[in-house]
Every structure is written in C-alpha cells, then in structure tokens.
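Re: that chain you flagged

S.,

Sorry for the slow reply, it's been a week of failed gels. I finally had a moment to sit down with the sequence you sent. For the record, here it is as I used it:
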Amino acid sequence: MKALVKQKAEPGLWLTDVPEPTIGPGDVLIKVLRTGICGTDLHIRAWDGWAQQAVRTPLTVGHEFVGEVVETGRDVADIKPGDLVSGEGHLVCGSCRNCQAGRRHLCRATVGLGVGRDGAFAEYVALPATNVWVHRVPVDLDIAAVFDPFGNAVHTALSFPLVGEDVLITGAGPIGIMAAAVARHAGARHVMITDVSEQRLELARKVGVSLALNVAHTSIEAGQRELGLREGFDVGLEMSGRPEAMRDMIGNMTHGGRIAVLGLAAEEFPVDWSRIVTSMITIKGIYGREMFETWYAMSVLLEGGLDLAPVITGRYPYQEFETAFADAASGQSGKVILDWSA
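Prediction finished late last night. Pasting the structure tokens below so you have them in one place:
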C-alpha cells in the first residue's frame, strides 16, 4: 500500500510502498479516506530537535484521520466492517494507576499514533478497537478527519464553565479557532482571539468571535476596552506556545481567573508568579483528549449545530502531499486535508 513515511533521519517525507498492516484479535483494520495535517507532522517533516528525540525511522506518520472499517479481530464485538470511524491517537497501557482508575488520558506510558508507532498517512491503518470511535450520526468527512485536534479544542475550551464568561484565546491556529467556536456555542459572553496573522484572524471572525485582535498592532488591554471589560477576562485558553502570549494572558485575567494551556512552548520561560498568586489564577495543562468523554462532547456539539467548516481551508490528493504540507506550514491556513479515497 502507499504511505507517507519518514524514511531517513533528515528533513522530508517519502511517499512509498509499505506492507499493509496486520491485525490481532482485538484490533480493527481501517481503509483511510481522509487525513488532517497536524503541527506534529510538520515537526517530523522538518526533523527539528523534538522530532529527532521522539521519532525512530522508518515510520509511517499521521494521526488525524477518518476511514471505513474493512476488517475486525475475532474479539471485537461492537465495531463492524463498513462503519465510518476516526481514531484516538493516544494508545495507553491499560495497567497503570490512571488507566485502571478510568483516567486513560493521564497514562504515563502513552504511545502516539504516527509518532511512536506507524500512523494513518497511508491507505490502511490498524488500531486497537479501544481506540476506535464510530461515527453513529452523519458527519462531514473533512470534519471527521480532524476529530483529534477538534478534541484538543473541546478538552481545552470546556475545562472551565463558560456560560456568561469573557474568554481570551491566544493563538488563532486551527485548534484556537475551533476552541473559539466551541466557547461561543457553549454560551460565553465575549470571545476574543489574538494572533499576528490577518488570514487566520479572518478565519476566526467567520466562526463568530467577538473580537479578532492582531497583537502586532493592538494590545490585549486595548481589546478589553473595546469589548467594555473592566476587570479582565474570566477564562483564558492559551493555544500558541508563545511566552509573550502567556505573559500577556496572565496580565489580563480577572482575580480568580482560570487558564487552560494547550500551546506547547519550545523552551522554558519566566512568568509573573506573584501576579498568579495574588490574583488567585488557576492554570491547567491540557494534553490530548479525555477518553472518551471529550469524543462524546464533540459529537454532541456537532449535532447541536456547531459549524467548523470555516476551519477547513485546503484539501489535496495525497499524491500532492508536498504542496499540502507547504500550505499547512505557511502559518496562513486553517486545517489542511489529504484525500486518500481516490
């Protein structure tokens, strides 16, 4: 079968033939229809310092996908051939304290699909049945392909109550924009999102944010005044991984404000801990999705009319992966999809 492979320990990806995966008694074989390009895939393609530490070549990359079940192992009872499915890309051990307590998203031995084991940028992918999400209601294939990052957005946005709250989101990448859409849908009063890319801020406006602010020209404090806020934001969602964004967010929270942090910084950086303590600010780190509570929330949000269509800005045949990756790496796009169905 065809697959996008990190063949060598150097920049680049290679479209090549690899053996079709085999499945065990508890596994599911899936014909991939569409995949989403993630920032993780960009790191692996660029072969930066993180990728060099995390990845062993050769490796089929990719973890955001939707596909159709073609075969199930003998012990799989509730998934059948023909089902439309996406996959939870964090494979957990099942035996550690958190797994046994039902907190699988906190497993210390998590292995990432497309990072620690062969992934979904291929014609077929195999997964344990416990990692397969069956779409029981109709869903657009492009949206189904990005349930993984959509889950990151939902997990982050719904970490704290949002009804009537004023929300600040730093970073208008695809996940930040999805989080903004979720916050609006969940009842936030004002949602302000910041970035330095006008193209991405325009995408955020399409999902109905109260204010999309270019912080290269206007401060968050000025944005507060434009929205008529007097005491700061109630909830912050940090999606950029930028030190200046985190510091600005802390400086613009109300007393007792709550911050959920998904953005992954490249290195350590200082923050104003005195402000955090004296303003009694809560900071929560987010990694991945709660399994499978977040997945249920995603499906219900879509059933309830949440529209993520503006986030999808490009779709390419998988053979044009170089163009697709360049689009995704431009910093100007939303989610970029690879079509494997042809």
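What I noticed first: The CA atoms of residues 166 and 190 lie 5 Å apart.

Talk soon,
D.
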